[in-house]
Amino acid sequence: MSSENVEKPKKPAAFLYPGEMPPELNDWVPYKTKGFKEKFMEKVKQNPFVPIGCAATAVALTLGLIQFRKGQTKKSQLMMRFRVAAQAFTVGAIIVGVAIQTAKGNSGYPNKSPPANPNQDPK
Question: Gene Ontology cellular component (predicted)?
Fold first, then answer.
């Protein structure tokens, strides 16, 4: 038997605990990091009607519950109807926003791929 034909046993892969980064990716740096505030403001600028509808829903619900507690059922019923209308407005705003984003073809991610070396400037 020659030593060329003998297969060397493969080393088992190193054990990684859940959530541990593989050694090949130790120098990996995320392309862009955004905090909650930046993401939120970006989404509000894309579709400002959604937060407006959410606020209107919350106000109508709060006022309706206050009127219900006071025993003013007609005003409470009116506010609950307004709440349903505000919710419908919010859902409609979400659907229209998704349709516009789909028509633009913008998924929110940059079209450029990140540079292989994070210290290198993208061209």
Answer: mitochondrial membrane
Q: Give the model confidence (pLDDT) of 42-55 as tens digits.
A: 989 988 999 999 99
**Cβ(122)–Cβ(112) below 8 Å:** yes
Q: Quick one: how far is CA 116 from the chain centroid?
A: 25
Residue 69 lies in a domain: yes
| Strand intervals (E) in the chain | none
Look-up of token digits 């392309």: 31
Q: Read off φ and ψ for residue 122, nearest 5 degrees.
A: -70, 145
Q: What is this structure's pTM?
A: 0.58
The CA distance from 97 to 42, in Å, is 13
